DNA sequence: TTGTATGCGTTATCAC
DNA sequence: GTGATAACGCATACAA
């Protein structure tokens, strides 16, 4: 009984040594051929390739990674993919990575931060793209144990400790609000994620809500915040009921700025149920420009991020960082574009 | 100058041996502690854990994988994630895998089949879930080199060479068509992916279109197939224009069955633009029950797959197969449910 | 309960 | 251009 033969289950995989023996060369030579190394005679290269093909040999990436320290894996930290925005982001990232022969390891942000750090440590991945830790980024950076691990952030925030792509919604949001003001709208409210009781908490968000507040103050208007519950389920009847309650109790604003398109969709449904006409009685704008927005009747306005560009840039930054760890900090600001549709037209 | 110290770039990672030395034990003991092995004295366990924590030690999964042959990685082969159906599928799979400590490696089906096979071979992953090779499954199975690698399919088709979850749309689709017939609709057409010139090619699809054809024949109705171009972009103005052309040229059917919800959305837009009233003049049903369907005015009917259930089952099958490679073939059929909304109500 | 020897499949390094 | 040797970091098998 030969030892180490694993006769119990399936056969051993064919290794580089097997190929070497069959081809009458050394493992090193096979290795060189598999990596496309130049200094091998055409004769041996051809033979090795032929034999490897016949034996159905595949390089064991695990073993290679152990010695080279490079895995060809990029970890992507994202929010739940049932949110179309993040699904689209991951989609474009995947296309970028695949074009360079990398594969993606998907990680959700609802794991413990320590667990996230752990999953990406110890040369298990060549780099990290963080696209969904808004609000917990500082905490995450603090817990990172391997500072040298390449890491790029995609975020509405900007910060000084890491490479990042910043998405700046301020110009587009300002433009939308100005459109409403120009159209003579008097009562412009913001619908964001928060609670109806303490809607002002949402202003702690560095990004969109504060832009709204600034614009309101600049125009001398009253700030009106409508908070809807955060919800893992995209489809939330409770949200719609809450919105209808709000509009029935407080009357309806004549301009509504929504944190993102799903909320805009819920608002649309609530308004439609109550018989309000868009845009005659209420103007409406969302954010992210999800595909369905333009199909609604009337077509709903939104703010479109150039996702392909964002992801290409993030991947470029990460590749640069991998190639040159000591590169100075890289950053870029992307400015999304307001898509004006009927819901914003006077 | 000490050899192997890599002074050029960052310091070496702390290994199991470093921890062992610092804790005054052997590497083996540290290994046992890290794996939660029972037969270690509480004293040493505690000390090792403390030291490991202080030294910020993390198990190198690559090295572990090399010797155990298990990576904790599951490959998932899917269509592009900008399609909400697949994004939702991946979402639920991710939740399942993460709950068991596995991570997901994302692979897109538009790579070469050989490339897919290659990426999952050689013990690089513990198992595979295939969720988007419809129509190329046979070819994929033929090219698999490592038959023993656990692999589960999620598919509208059923087959005998591998474990699978089959999604059977026939009952729900039949129900929708019967609703239209009962409502007195005379001209019921199917809108699928194909070409306007050769729409009958879509009947080659084993699933939904053939169900439609069967029901039409059973009812003695004429089969009317409307083909829209396949499109990587979800948002396709060309499709809408083509649909409007079709309806203007041929008149509009009074019942429309759509291959999936995006097509239903495009049809909705085309009908709305042309002034047709839903459901009075045209009844409409889609497939996949994407979240926006119920928000459209009027709310659009669809067919809802129980995605959480599907993914839980697929993951269960895969785990079973991993644990017992010689298990008999596993299969299950899931029956989605028709969501009747205003677009189907007489 | 703990330690010793050995191998997992590959590549880096230095010879030849 | 090719080969020999020694790691990479960890776990299995067995001994103590």
Global structural class of chain A:
alpha/beta
Report Rg of chain A.
27 Å
How many structurally independent domains of chain A?
3
Poorly predicted runs of chain A: 1-10
Largest inter-chain contact set: A-B, 55 and 55 residues
Q: If helices are DSSP runs of H or I spanning 4 or more residues, what is the number of helices of chain A? A: 12
Mean pLDDT of chain A: 89
CATH architecture of the largest domain in chain A: 3-Layer(aba) Sandwich
Element pattern of chain A in H and E: HHHHEHEHEHEEHEHEHEHEEHEE
Explain this structure to me?
The structure is a homodimer of 346-residue chains. The first copy, chain A, has helices at 16-23, 27-34, 42-55, 61-68, 84-99, 113-119, 137-143, 170-182, 208-219, 237-250, 261-274, 307-323, and strands spanning 73-78, 103-108, 127-130, 151-155, 163-167, 188-193, 224-228, 255-258, 283-285, 302-304, 331-334, 337-339. The first copy, chain A, is of the alpha/beta class. In chain A, helix 2 (27-34) packs across helix 3 (42-55), helix 8 packs parallel to helix 9 (208-219) and helix 10 packs across helix 11. Chain A folds into 3 domains: 3-59, 434 Repressor (Amino-terminal Domain) (Orthogonal Bundle), CATH 1.10.260; 65-167 and 307-336, Response regulator (Rossmann fold); 170-304 and 339-344, Rossmann fold (3-Layer(aba) Sandwich). In chain A, the strands form 3 sheets. In chain A, strands 2-1-3-4-5-11 form a 6-stranded parallel sheet, with helices on one face. Chain A has a 4-stranded parallel sheet with strand order 7-6-8-9, sandwiched between helices. The interface between A and B is large, with 55 and 55 residues. Strand 2 (103-108) of chain A pairs antiparallel with strand 2 (103-108) of chain B, so a sheet runs across the interface. Chain B binds a DNA duplex (16 and 16 nucleotides) through residues 4, 13, 15-17, 25-29, 31-32, 34-35, 39-41, 44, 59-60, 62-69, 122.
């Amino acid at each position: 009984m030969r030892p180490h033969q694993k006769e119990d289950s399936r056969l051993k995989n064919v290794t580089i040594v097997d190929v070497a023996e069959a081809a009458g060369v050394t493992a090193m030579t096979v290795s060189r051929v598999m990596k496309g190394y130049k200094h091998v005679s055409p004769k041996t290269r051809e033979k090795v390739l032929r034999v490897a093909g016949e034996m159905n040999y595949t390089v064991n990436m695990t073993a290679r990674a152990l010695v080279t320290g490079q895995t060809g894996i990029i970890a992507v930290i994202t929010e739940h993919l049932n949110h179309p925005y993040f699904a689209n982001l991951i989609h474009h990232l995947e296309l970028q990575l695949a074009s360079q022969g990398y594969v993606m390891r998907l990680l959700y942000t609802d794991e413990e931060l320590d667990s996230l750090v752990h999953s990406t440590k110890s040369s298990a991945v060549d780099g990290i793209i963080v696209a969904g830790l808004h609000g917990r980024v500082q905490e995450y950076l603090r817990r990172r144990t391997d500072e040298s691990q390449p890491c790029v952030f995609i975020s509405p925030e900007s910060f000084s400790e890491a490479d990042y792509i910043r998405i700046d919604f301020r110009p587009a949001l300002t433009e939308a609000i100005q459109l409403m003001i120009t159209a003579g709208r008097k009562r412009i409210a913001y619908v964001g994620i928060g609670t109806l009781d303490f809607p002002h908490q949402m202003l702690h968000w560095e990004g969109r809500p504060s832009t709204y507040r600034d614009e309101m103050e600049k125009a001398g208007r009253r700030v009106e915040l409508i908070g809807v519950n955060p919800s893992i389920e995209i489809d939330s009847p409770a949200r719609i009921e809450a919105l209808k309650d709000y509009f029935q109790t407080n009357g309806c604003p004549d301009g509504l700025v929504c944190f993102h398109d799903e909320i805009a969709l819920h608002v649309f449904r609530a308004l439609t149920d109550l018989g309000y006409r868009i845009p005659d009685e209420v103007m409406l704008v969302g954010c992210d420009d999800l595909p369905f927005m333009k199909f609604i009747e009337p077509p709903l306005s939104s703010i479109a991020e150039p996702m392909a560009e964002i992801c290409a840039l993030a991947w470029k930054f990460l590749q640069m960082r991998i190639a040159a760890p000591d590169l100075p900090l890289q950053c870029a600001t992307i400015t999304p574009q307001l898509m004006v549709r009927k819901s914003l037209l006077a």
